[in-house]
Amino acid sequence: MDFSFTKKEEKFRTELRTWLEANLPEGWLEGKRDLPEDLDEYSRVLRAWQRKLYEGGWAAIAWPKEYGGRNASLMEEIIYHQEMVRVKAPPLINYIGIHMVGPTLIDIGTDEQKEKYLKKILTGEEIWCQGYSEPGAGSDLTGLKTRAVKDGDRWLINGQKVWTSFGHVADKCFLLTRTSTHPEKKHRGITVFMMDMHQPGVETLPIVQMDGHKDFNEVYMTDAVATDADIVGKVDSGWHVLIALMLHERTGIGAELFTLEKQFNDTVELAQQYKVNGKPLIENPLVRQKLANFYARVRGSLLNYYKNLTTTIKNGQPGAETSIDKLVVTELNQALSAFAVEIQGHQGVLFDKDAVADPKWQHLFLASFGQTIGGGTSEVQRNTIGERVLGLPKDMGR
Amino acid sequence: MDFSLTEEQEMFRGHIRKMLDKFGGTQLAREMIDNNPENLKKVYTTLAELGCSGINIPEEYDGMDLDALDLVPTFEEMGRSLVPGLFMETSALVVPILKKYGTEQQKQQYLSAIASGETWISFAALEPFNDFSPAGIQCTLVQHDGQYVLNGTKTLVPEAELADAFLVLVRTNQEDQEDGLSLVLIDKTEELNIEKQSSFDESTHVAKIEFNQLVIKEDQIIGEVDKGWTQLQEGLLYFNAALSSYIVGAMESVVNMATEYAKIREQFGQAIGRFQAIKHSIVNMKVNLEIARSLSHYANWVVDTDEFDREAAIYSARTYATEKFIEVSAHNIQIHGGIGFTEEIDCHLFVKRARYYDQYLGSTPFYQEKVVASLGW
Questions:
Q1: Which of B3, B262, B371 has the CB atom closest to A303's CB atom?
Q2: Catalytic residue among A249, A261, A331, A387
Q3: Residue B56's CB: how many other CB atoms inside 10 A?
Q4: In angstroms, what CA-CA distances link A257 with A211, A333, B143, B172, B370?
Q5: What is the pLDDT of residue A213?
Q6: Which of A185, A201, A194 is nearest to A233 (CA)?
Q7: Model's pTM, two decimal places?
């Protein structure tokens, strides 16, 4: 049991902190954190931030040094998340490129692919999205219908993707397609393409979410073109690529847990500020009990994350237990943001510019419903935990 | 960063598990329902032989001088089998209090005897129709002609039959109702008036003790007179950290029971574990268990430090553990169906113990308030 950081790790933290203080957008640390509403402007600002991270050597710390990373340890990644949450750093627009596509290419990409893509991922020159879900294939990806068919020396891609994060700003897509059909083993016959988003035949339409934001897109492909050189791994073995990609998620849900802890502290502050009948809400015994309960859950989730992380450090890769972290953080986030809205009383319904508390709990509350669905629904996480951690039998029909 | 128990600690766990399994696990609790403590006494002797009772006792009193965290495997394993008795009260309440506040003579008298397994000590704090607060303690210890005289009634005293002595919380100052309390150690003698009480958790026995003009020597008082409540709070930090470990072990048993049953029990031609209603219910139990375990390991680490969140971490581990123990043991009955509602299998033992511990020395809301207060809110 050792919760301390080594001198080297503390030095890393200081170095990052100093860099952030000097390089965050002007006024950011003081609280001026509004990002442009206009999509092009938004993308421009965040690309510039990505470029800055690259120039400072902070774009992809976990990557090997030879590809522009820092070969960071797991603990350094944790510190990186902690510090980014601490300053509420701007979102990483090339999240998918940095955390998923890049490491996978480093692992199984060809030399040409590494040469062609890696640096542009780091600099933000090429933003990536991933084309996984489809209207008929969400949690069960084996049901995907987007087809890639060989046509001479090129592939023609037809189909539709949905819930594509960053799709509206992306230059490239890490695309799952069906290239052949195996009625028995549906996960066979899937191929991953790196598809150019700026070509005729690729159309992106934003999806308006229940919180008014447009973080996701539908992507329609009509005879979109890719070549053999765009295939990751081998034809029909996209499932292996997916598994390789998932193993790269070493610190996974960490950043969200640190954010949750911060949001909990903000909730306490809210309860200290709000008055009911002339008294701060935090003096109300029922509110106190609920806060104590949230404290235990938030601390417990974070500690459980450290416990799983320790196992990851010892084994070299995360186990199925990390599904517990995803399940817990998203459900807790939903409960906590609902509570933060609830304690605002009738003012709790005020939205956006009229919301009375910062952070904008109303937005977090509405957005929380997507988090228990995206990245594997709570139900899928429970199946994973039940089957892979507890060894319970698979569901009927599977 | 390393948030795990050491290999040595895990190995030690293995020894204890093996030993307790040999004694039939929850059979020990069932024997207590029948008022038969013979095997339990043997288990306690064996635990002492393995060194468990001396883990957190200094070397000069024949202990191993280790930390609260080193007791975690023992408590988790005892919890797995719902082992009754006074191990927790002795090792995790009396020992830390004696170590911090006891006189040299008191340490010599009790710590070596505890380390060797000769002495087990119970805790007499609660009183009829009163809560667990300073105002709820009205047993009086009055100085009279150079002697101390004790009068009053204690209730819900655990395992009085197995106890060799009692740590008793008494009022020594009528003016100071916020505190004005003191802790005294009383050896069990014939003159104590002990009356067994009936509890729905029959695997843990509770008793009422009436003190009638009992004469106490000054050297039986632990620590400073009138400061007993404050001293007790320090001891309760260790106790609640230990209790959370014990409960984690018990919850683990419950989750295992439910999982194994769901794999073999068939309905509609399928193992019931294939139905998501069952599977997800067990997963929720498992998630609660793992969060409780993480809170509890941290609580037992932090109790020996002066970290800023020491109290909040321990109280939140206790509230989370007691609350979720009730929840998972209830779900376990539901998953077992009709048989879960019988005395034949263990489900009911866990439900009853869960409720017992939730209300032992305070309840969930009581400790939730302590979490919030310790954070300064």
A1: B3
A2: A249
A3: 26
A4: 22, 9, 56, 48, 24
A5: 87
A6: A194
A7: 0.95
